[in-house]
What we know:
By secondary structure, the chain is an alpha/beta fold. The protein has helices at 18-27, 42-45, 72-79, 146-150, 152-165, 183-194, 209-219, 227-230, 235-238, 254-261, 307-331, 348-355, and strands spanning 6-10, 31-36, 46-52, 60-69, 90-91, 97-103, 115-118, 129-133, 137-140, 174-177, 198-203, 223-226, 247-250, 269-272, 301-304, 340-344, 363-367. Strand 10, helix 6 and strand 11 form a beta-alpha-beta unit. The longest helix is centred in the last third of the chain and has 25 residues, at 307-331.
Amino acid sequence: MALRWLSVRSLGQRGADHWGSLCRVMARGLCEALIYHKHGDPLRVVRLETLKPPQLGDTDVRAQMLAAPINPSDINMVQGTYPILPNLPAVGGNEGVGQVLEVGSRVTNLKPGDWVIPSDAGLGTWRTETVDNMNRFSKVPNNLPLLCAATLGVNTCTAYRMLYDFETLKPGDSVIQNAANSGVGQAAIQIAKAMGLTTINIVRDRPDLQQLTDRMKSMGAHYVITEEALRKPDMEELFKKVPRPHLALNGVGGKSATEILRHLVKGGTMVTYGGMAKQPITVPAVRKSVFKSALIFKNVKIQGFWMTRWKQDHGHDLVQEMISVLCDFIQAGKLRAPVCTKVKFQDYTTALKAATTPFISSKQILIM
């Protein structure tokens, strides 16, 4: 998406007087955004700049951004490695929550004071204010916890669609997933619990493994297993107590994907939504071991999922319907935000550094 605002000047890093400066900027009809003019290391190419918003059109909405996360896909976009890239210069961020300030004369579904989240990728949420077409926003209740609303549109929707769209799961069934401590993984644990499913959650070994395990179990995880333990024959003992999974969620790729694939029930499905390992998925057709080959004897299905494509294919009304269901989960206490760290907008370099550091399980949230 092309940058719709005129860049005025780079602000850089500021100290305690930032908020007074921000108020003066907004009073002049300008706002601030994290912009990159070229692809590369986010810590080198992302800069805080002032912008002049466009005029409000008849079908447009002006919203003040309240909070926006830094997701792996956001980092990949800045780096230039994501499958779709906005025109440069671009405002970073694809997820977040804002409050409507003003609506055009033909807008009937939103009003000032409403909370909104992006209906699709490309809005550029790392900014203090945004103006765009009304169909680019989905309404959410303004009494949601701020962090739940800010992290609702990407990871949570991805988890929801994968759990509901690929296999007909019933209470008592099990699901296995790698990257289980990711934003998608944490959402999948909670939604699966609400569905009455058992989750087998694979994570990388780390110094704070017990702390991570305890946190995931507090969300509803039944089993938390390291990648190393997943490869051991002892896993077969687990399936004497738990039915083999009908569904595997793969956000890693490489050997991790192969391992969760081989534990599927006959005819099961592995859905790939990410590839953090940056390695291809190997699907065994013939394998000389105690495990039957996946394709020939187990007839597993290998599918991919991309939330952006789903939203584009299904349109605004179905996106809004999905968002409403997830908001009901939140308000019923069945779904909470992933583990987050709130960072002031002007301290964006701190957030970017944490978001690109391995084994940082906390999602960085920019607070405007």
